[in-house]
Amino acid sequence: MPTLTLPTKPTLGLGCWAIGGPFNAGDTPVGWGEVDDATSIAAIHAGLDHGIRLFDTAQAYGTGHSESVLGTALKHHPDVTIVTKIGIDIDPVTRQITPNQTDPQIIRDSITASCKRLQRDHIDLILLHLNDLAIPTATPIFEMLANLCQAGTIGSYGWSTDYPDRATAFPDHPGFTTVEMAMNVFFAAAHMVPAVEKAGLVALIRSPLAMGILGGRYDASSTFAGNDVRSQNQQWHGHFQDGRVSPKRLAQLDAIRDILTTDGRTLAQGALAWIWARSANAIPIPGFRTPAQVADLAGALEKGPLTHTQMVALEALIDRDEEGPPQPR
Q1: Which residues contact 63 (CB under 8 A, 6 or more apart)?
Q2: How far is CA 23 from CA 35, 96, 167, 285, 329, in A?
Q3: Which residues of 250-286 are buried (b: 16+ CB within 10 A; e: fewer)?
Q4: Dihedral of the CA atoms 329, 25, 60, 126 (nearest 10)?
Q5: Where are the alpha helices (DSSP H) in 152-239?
Q6: 212 burial type by CB count under 10 A (0-12 exposed, 13-18 middle, 19+ buried)
Q7: Separation of alpha carbons 89 and 17, rounded Å
Q8: Which residues contact 85 (CB under 8 A, 6 or more apart)?
Q9: 197: how many CB neighbours lie within 10 A of its CB?
Q10: Which pTM value belongs to this model?
């Protein structure tokens, strides 16, 4: 069973939200629009070809569809680390996420369902997907996960959260190894980075490309389909406005583009290089759809992190929003 440990060199995973296809929370789209499963599987295999050995999914992504696609693609690769997330309940028939689930036994049953979709008899890493769940309510869930870890059903566990108090609430739980958190050049995670580093936890970094903006394909004229989560005005990320990239993000990107693309990097590679320079504990997990995107992302490993000089120059140029108190992102 692969074990996720603190990285000793720049390490990259792939996030599988986008390959889950369309799904909704009520009338609100929370997927990334239509996908082709054959292309998704080819992209996963491209990741393997480029040395990527970590894939992050969730029960919620496509209401199980992302897990199923990943399971098909990786069924002959038991050496690859698979991460999935629990706590957001799903209805695969209607493609709806349903009210959050905090009952440990029901969550235990949902892990069995994830194993079936992933075509595995165990899962390497399980993360609680409920970002701001109260710690007393989360405690029985983590006690259940600790028991599963000791039994060998899961390799380790952690929390997908942007709250330092949640991230560091279970230091004595055996098997609690990882926090998944939002961070990118637009959002430096000033509260989370020191807390996670002090606790000695692995930091899986979601939204490292700011939902695709730092991939460099979008400008002021770009629009998103109605079944794409980016078509919605969501305060939790602030990246989009009326179905377009926000002017604030475009201005920020213009200010730092030259630094991110130094040393022959593509924009996406520069955004990943910033994350590795920001924290030695960080493993970015950018989303993907195609083999070409995966090849571009994997190319960041050859370039490594930005230098200290480049980081100082970037910080002098970017005009970030005030981070404010912790909130779900």
Answers
A1: 20, 23, 90, 91, 92, 95, 96, 97
A2: 12, 6, 28, 21, 19
A3: bebbeebeebbeeeebbbbbbbbbbbbbbbebbbbbb
A4: 50
A5: 164-167, 192-199
A6: buried
A7: 15
A8: 57, 58, 59, 60, 126, 127, 128, 129, 160, 180
A9: 15
A10: 0.97
Copy the structure tokens of residue 267.
């924009």
Over residues 50-67, the pLDDT tens digits come to 999 999 999 999 999 999
Six-digit token string for 256: 């730092």
What's the CA angle centered on 14, arms 53 and 127, to 5 degrees? Answer: 90
Among positive and negative, which fits the CA dihedral 238, 244, 246, 250? positive
Over the stretch 206-264, which tens digit does the pLDDT of each residue have?
Answer: 999 999 999 999 999 999 999 999 998 877 778 999 899 999 999 999 999 999 999 99
**Which token pair is 22?**
């369309």
Distances in Å between the alpha carbon of 233 and those of 23, 109, 246, 309, 320? 17, 34, 10, 36, 19
Are 110 and 157 a contacting pair, CB within 8 Å? no
* CA pair distance 123, 115, nearest whole angstrom: 7
Backbone dihedral region for residue 119 (phi beyond 0: left; psi -120 to 50: alpha; all else: beta)? left
Q: Residue 144 to residues 16, 35, 83: CA-CA distances in angstroms?
A: 25, 35, 17
Compute CA 326 distance to the chain's CA centroid, rounded to the nearest angstrom. Answer: 18
- 157: which 2 tokens? 């566990």
3-class SS of residue 232: coil
Rounded-to-integer distance, Cα 211 and Cα 31, Å = 12
Tokens of 144: 């259940």
CA distance 118 to 109: 14
Instruction: Quote the CA–CA distance of 258 and 262 in Å, as a whole number.
Output: 6
